[in-house]
Amino acid sequence: MPRHLPELDGKTFLVCIGAAKCGTSWLHRYLSGLPEVEPSPLKELHFFNSRTPVPAFGDPDAVALARLRAFMGQPGDTLANLREQPAFAASLDRARMIYDEDAYFGHFARLLSPQTRVLADITPAYATLGPAGFADMRAFFASQQVTLKVLFIMRDPVDRLWSQLRHVEQMTPDKPAATHWHLAPDAPAIWSRTDYRATIAALDACFAPEDRLCLFYETLFAPETLGRLCDFLGVEAAADMPAGRQNETRVQVALPDDARRTFAVLLAPQYAFCRERFGTEVPEAWGRYS
Fold first, then answer.
1. What DSSP string runs through 193-240?
2. How much is the pTM?
3. 8 Å CB contact between 25 and 247
4. CB-based contacts of 79: which residues, under 8 Å, 6+ apart?
5. pLDDT value at residue 97
6. Residue whose C-alpha is closest to residue 236's, from 245, 223, 246
7. 83-118: pLDDT as tens digits
8. Taking 60 as the threshold, does the pLDDT of residue 246 lie above it?
9. Residue 117, burial from CB neighbour count under 10 angstroms (0-12, 13-18, 19+)
10. I want to staple 22 with a disulfide (CB 3.0 to 4.6 A). Which of 118, 217, 240, 241 is the partner?
11. How far apart are CA 142 and CA 82, in angstroms?
């Protein structure tokens, strides 16, 4: 277990576990603007999915080293860049986490200001950790005198999947979404992100109701939703919100009709589960495909 850091005593940790393409980049920016909240400068630390590896997602530690190399290869003076760029310093912290688990809490302790009440790790891939991974997360945080809160954001399952496939095309143009969509159900790195039911069942098994919150992408940007989130964290909501989307997928291509029909059938259990679990909280827009 990691070393106890007294400077973290009494703080709240928010771990946002996704889902992918559900506004988490915008949320990172919003939380960064709250005086009482300090998210990691690295959105997506990928620390807990290195402790509980999910083979379909590759090697998070190798990605961390590649990111650090990219920062070190920037033009200009490396030491000046390190001092001036919070994400560079955070990437160095993340590399240390590969061999020193104390570095996770050390990273957040370094971010503290006199106003800080909440620290945040926003890593959508954590949604796939399963019961064992969430149990490990809970035990890891138990080493500190902090309160752990977990947030899961959902989006219309078909819309979310199609956004992810367009993002894949953006990253790998030789795999256009319009012609490769039929491969998605057999790709664990993609399809596992669609299983809201499994993620929520794992959360239920590991965290008390008052320590977990599920929200919806379609209503995330409403003041009342952000007020609910800030109440969950025990901080004041911001009067202003960041303008525009963050990390929006640039590839814009219409969902083919055959893909829409196929995905609607395959994801029907997710729609049914969410309606049974959340009732009228499920946004009306989800009715387009189900």
1. GG-HHHHHHHHHHHS-GGGEEEEEHHHHTSHHHHHHHHHHHTSPPPSS
2. 0.94
3. yes
4. none
5. 98
6. 223
7. 999 999 999 999 999 999 999 999 999 999 999 999
8. no
9. middle
10. 217
11. 32
Q: Residue 29 and residue 37: Cα distance in Å, rounded?
A: 11
Cα distance between residue 38 and residue 118, in whole Å: 6
Indicate the DSSP class of residue 44.
-
Supply 183's token pair: 């491969």
Bond before 198 cis per omega within 30 degrees: no
For residue 180, name the pLDDT band (cuts at 50, 70, 90).
confident
pLDDT, tens digit, 9 for 90 and up, residues 123-136:
999 999 999 999 99
- Nearest-angstrom CA–CA distance, 163 and 245: 14
Contacts of 171-177 spanning 24+ positions with Cβ under 8 A: 176/253, 177/251, 177/253
Q: Which residue has the tokens 């992918």?
A: 20
For residue 51, the one-letter residue type is R
Torsion angle (degrees, nearest 10) of CA 159, 163, 165, 166: 130
Bridge-based pairing of strands 147-154 and 12-16 is: parallel
Phi-psi bin for 42: left (phi > 0), alpha (psi -120 to 50), beta? Answer: beta
